[in-house]
Amino acid sequence: MGIRIVFDSTSDITKEIIEKYNLVMVPLIVNFEDTSYLDKVELTTDEFFDKLGRSEKLPTTSQASPAAFYEVFTKILEEGDEVLGIFIGSEFSGTYSSAQIAKETIGDDRIHIIDSRSACLGTFSLIMKAIQLVEEKRDIKEIVDILERAKDKIEVIAAIDTLKYLVKGGRLTKTQAIAGSLLNIKPIITIKDSKISVVDKVRGNNNVQKWIDNWIQSNGFDLSNKTVFLFHARAKGRLDALREVLVNKYNVKDIIESEVGAVIGTHTGPGVIAIGFLND
Description:
The protein is built from 11 helices and 13 strands. 42% of the residues lie in helices and 26% in strands. Helix 5 packs antiparallel against helix 6. The chain is α/β, with parallel strands linked by helices. The chain has 2 domains: 3-152, Rossmann fold (3-Layer(aba) Sandwich), CATH 3.40.50.10170; 154-278, Hypothetical Protein Tm841, Chain: A,domain 3 (2-Layer Sandwich). The strands form 3 sheets. Strands 10-9-8-13-11-12 form a 6-stranded mixed β-sheet. A 4-stranded parallel β-sheet has the order 2-1-6-7, with helices on both faces.
């Protein structure tokens, strides 16, 4: 009996990793006015940002349904494997709740689900830890215990390039956005314990890289033994510049790159770059 890892599409895990480790993705739903799409199934990341740029209204997202999880969980159990589900923080989405309902409906103790208390690359980092533990042939109860403790060690920082989508989402007034745009302000946000907080504001993209560099140094993070996750939304050039600093200055053990998808991209818009890792 093996262990199959199930996750939702907000983690933005690369296709290569999904295929390599036989992971199972359950998509959320992205709604553009009167049309709905299964995230990453019926709508690619590129298609999403194209539509986002043309849309007057922000798209909305809907959680994965209990029925979707019921179908996935049942299939895995029928194949003789256990389920290890790791999902976007429950305060960001009802997806974890849907998975819990499916688990209770099936009533099988071979289903184990975890609220990551994070999102996007934060959840991704926890999933990669799970993959490592599964590869090490750890017992499922030990894996769950390690992951539950690891949630508090997730570090995520993201720099938002444009204030336009924060205005559309009602998180900034137009007056605040105009002032911020004139000053070329880039908010720096973090995700911790299912909460998004603005930790600083810098002027210009060059200062974003300097801020992240200083953040690593001031916290004394040792990246030489870590897998670091670098995410971007149509900002590959700036991400490459950050990657160069991480490789040359911090001797990072491993770097995984991906693109911010629809659920996070709805609120940040294009241009965002982010760094995350598990500080264990």
